[in-house]
């Protein structure tokens, strides 16, 4: 098993994101945080917004 694995599952026009994680390394809260961040990034891409708008200052690219 991978330590962290994302799966994208398409059903018709719907896309589901699933996450499998190693609970010896990640807490449920941390894994949920990964899903929330990725969901936010994907939503920004769909809405054609700059991803930098949703990143916190530590994640934003430096000039």
SSE layout and pairing:
Elements: E1 4-11, E2 14-21, H1 28-46
Antiparallel strand pairs: 1-2
Characterize the structure shown.
The protein is an alpha+beta fold and about 60 residues long. The protein has one domain (about 5-55). Helices cover about 30% and strands about 25% of the residues. It has 1 helix and 2 strands. Strands 1-2 form a two-stranded antiparallel ribbon. The longest helix is centred in the middle third of the chain and has 19 residues, at about 30-45. The protein is flat. The model has no long low-confidence stretch (mean pLDDT about 85).
Inertia-based shape: flat
The major pleated sheet works out as: 2 strands, antiparallel
Say how many strands there are.
2
Pick out the low-confidence regions.
none
Average of per-residue pLDDT values: 85
Structural Rg: 14 Å
Task: Provide a concise account of the structure shown.
The chain is α+β, with helices and mostly antiparallel strands. 30% of the residues lie in helices and 25% in strands.
